[in-house]
Write the structure tokens for this entry.
Amino acid sequence: MAAVKLFGNLRSRVNASHLQISGASIRAVVENLCGAYPSLGETLLEDGQIRPHFKITINGHDIQLAQGLDTGVDEQDQIAIFSPIAGG
């Protein structure tokens, strides 16, 4: 199981900031996470895809610079999911 850290309003959807979720890819981890916490899926996903302004990293690296949702995951990996933020 990979460690998943949630930020912003995502934490309130699961009442936790850290979770252990299984999956061989980022896609599988997100599917398992949203299956376990449907309200999180409503926030994070749109038509089965990650909403555009959310950012996912694995071990501090943006998954879009790797294989996106198909990026492989090992048990020791740290996944972070960031919600959009605004400021001024």
Summary: The longest strand covers residues 2-6. The longest helix spans residues 26-36. The chain has a mean pLDDT of 93. DSSP finds three helices and seven strands in the chain.
